[in-house]
What we know:
By secondary structure, the protein is of the alpha/beta class. Helix content is 33%, strand content 21%.
Amino acid sequence: MIKRSLQEIASMMNGQLNKEYDIEIRGVSIDSRKIEEGNLFIPFKGEHVDGHQYVKSAIEKGAGASLWQKDVPNPPEDIPLIFVEDPLKALQALAKNYLMQLSVKVVGITGSNGKTTTKDMVAALLSTQYRVHKTSGNYNNHIGLPLTILTMSEDTEVAVLEMGMSGRGEIELLSKLAEPDLAIITNIGEAHLLDLGSREGIAEAKLEIMSGLKEDGVLIYHGDEPLLKERVEGHSIRNLTFGLGHQNTVYAEYIKTREKDTLFKTNLYGTEFVLPVLGAHNVQNAMAAILAARELGITPENIKAGLSSVQLTNMRMEMKKGKRGEIIINDAYNASPTSMKAAIDLVTELTGFNRKILVLGDMLELGPKEEEFHLKIGAMIKPGSVDQLFTYGRLGKKIAEGAMKVLPKEAIFSYEDKEELIATLINQVSKNDLILVKASRGMKLEEVVQALMEG
């Protein structure tokens, strides 16, 4: 984490101290309940809560100092304060300056789906030869990314930073803050259609990651996506592509999905890789990670070792065992039409199970065509590929309606009450059933997974 004198901290964020102090700041915190000794407290002034009212409490709990927004009245006189125009901009400036002081390569990752999975894979590969720091949890926005940077130790050699967004301009801000040496765009899906209106708008928003890319930096992107390809071709920036098409820098020569892992081989290496993650879509993420690792000098042997040891963030294609011996794929962290289709395709490919059951919930933030997207998901289920479909939520009901065209009516169960769904599902499942659980994060379908495991 950042360790600097209070004077240095104030200078790095262009703030003014209320008076001189001999204090070393060790890390930052935006939550007065989670203060650690020596932290700099960052109070944000929101619509409903003003963090300035917790400044004294933060100091009492061990904070070394606090920021104070200049236009907020009545600053306490007896504690170390740095006066700034805007605490958020001060936090971002501090992170940017700290990063500039370190000898560290930066890998920035964005995309509609697969950002976190790709981040985990890139970090796993690079960790075979470097000291790596990566984004924790969902700390990938205008607040989370600077906090991630400021938790980085000074001997870090590579920072792997996830960059999320909800609208235009956000990726540009994050990219200019982090100034990546390598930028990865995993894909362009339908997430954020509600805010951006079209896949073209999403592509343009994701390509904002080039805004802060270093002059000699490299863009790595999904080369099978025309919306990216046609926009990148107009730039002089060096770029590498991954995908299934043979025109890409790296492509998969074959993919074999097994019960607990995925095997694949690429055109770049004569070896077969073992990925302890299910699904052909995760091979795409792995190929993006391979290109990043190759650019940073990771040996083929270490690429293979890194891929075989990948551990994904929770609720992303997570294999669990239920109380009755059923196998659960917990993919309840997020969902879009692209990722939903990939997960259903995976279930279709897997063999050796008693029955296959889909538990699918609402996909959120899809805009005016949300019902159409859900109907299409139901209709694209291949007849005979699954035995039962359970849906949850208002939009999940549309998945069930779409599935009426391809599945027997008695195989489809639709609920807007989660407890009813759980009760019926528990009565249905048996040993060696395969159950996929997937929906947008707001639907909290991990509660279904937990109920199956607890019985």
